[in-house]
Amino acid sequence: NVGKSTLFNRLLGRRKSIVFSHPGSTRDIIKEDLVVGDKTFYLVDSGGFDNEKDHYPTLIKEKILETIKKSDFIIFLLDGKSGFYNEDREILKIIREKKKKYVAVINKIDTKEAGENISEFYKLGIKKFIQVAAEHNRNVRTIREYINNNFSNLPANLVERNNAIPKIAIVGKPNAGKSTLINSLAKETISIVSKIPGTTRDSVNLKINRWNKDYLFIDTAGLRRKSKISDDMEYYSTNRAVDTIEKSDIVILIIDSQYGPTNQDSKISSLIKKNNKGIILAINKSDLIPNNIRDEKNISERILGSLPEINYAQTVLISALKSKNVDTIYKLID
């Protein structure tokens, strides 16, 4: 809750990451193009670095460590309102051990506590800090200028905007295998995968170049029935998923082959049809279907019969976990 997602959105100039007052709101790694001057960078929003040994903090911490290793430059964000934490020292130790370039930024300097707390951060052995108030967009421009100056020797590399790339939303019920599929498409861990339904909160973008063609896949939060939405965070996540469907070109609806289509799948299908989207029905976990009944044509016909509102959908039987038949999705998109 240091304000990473707020700063991420301010740097982008639009709301991409969900911002919520409860710590741990961001779980997946959110990645977007950041244009500074004549250069394009990948800006990455990570979850909070927490030493708790609960399920999610452990998964998030592993993902943060992996992200630090892959990064060229790090914005090391500190909380001026809450003051110095031992985790701050631990994060900085990792950054230095990996010999990464970084800039230290103290956030929330517009709070009365910040004036008393800023001196504590000199314990880290850092001589210069950028001080910002991300929520009110105060001094955020200085970070952009710092990035631009730090990479001034790089050639201009403005990239093609995502507007020209087909956008494919991956939707379905919680725990249907959406994040596993996006990781399989990427051939690396982009979304955190857990057996606990509702792990994904933000919409996670993944741009993939396949056969000299770009695709933009978007992993969304699981869509539950309204009566099952238990808190404000899940409400915002669900709204973000619905918004993603509306803005996409094609929607991949994942059906769990172990349960078949449910009433919620039918409602999601109606939402897709209402928005006139192309649809691919990905019947997941095919590796768990017994061999004697694994007839793709028969399974597809039965599932489409249960979802008459999208009986025009393309279908494919996949195992996202084992990357089985996943490449067929590209052919169906085209």
Structure report:
The structure is a single chain. With 334 residues, the chain is of the alpha/beta class. It folds into two domains: 4-150, P-loop containing nucleotide triphosphate hydrolases (Rossmann fold); 162-333, 3-Layer(aba) Sandwich (Rossmann fold). It contains ten helices and eleven strands. It has helices at 4-12, 55-70, 86-97, 114-117, 140-150, 178-186, 232-247, 263-274, 296-306, 328-333, and strands at residues 30-36, 39-45, 73-79, 101-107, 130-131, 167-172, 204-210, 213-219, 250-256, 278-284, 314-317. Helix 4 links the parallel strand 4 and strand 5 (130-131). The longest helix is centred in the N-terminal third of the chain and has 16 residues, at 55-70.
Features:
32% helix; 334 residues; Rossmann fold; single chain; alpha/beta; 10 helices
Write the layout of secondary structure elements.
Elements lengths: L3 H9 L17 E7 L2 E7 L9 H16 L2 E7 L6 H12 L3 E7 L6 H4 L12 E2 L8 H11 L16 E6 L5 H9 L17 E7 L2 E7 L12 H16 L2 E7 L6 H12 L3 E7 L11 H11 L7 E4 L10 H6 L1
Parallel strand pairs: 3-4, 4-5, 6-8, 6-9, 9-10, 10-11
Antiparallel strand pairs: 1-2, 7-8
Q: Would you kindly provide a brief summary of this structure?
A:
It is built from ten helices and eleven strands.
| Poorly predicted tracts of residues | 17-27, 191-202, 224-237
- Terminal CA distance reads 41 Å
The 3D shape can be described as elongated
Provide a count of the helices. 10
Q: Into which percent range does the helicity of residues fall?
A: 25-40%
In terms of DSSP E residues, the strand content is: 15-25%
Structural class by sheet pairing and helices: alpha/beta
CATH class of the largest domain: Alpha Beta
Rg (CA only) = 22 Å
Number of strand elements: 11
Walk across the major sheet and give the strand order.
Answer: 7-8-6-9-10-11
Q: What's the structural domain tally? A: 2
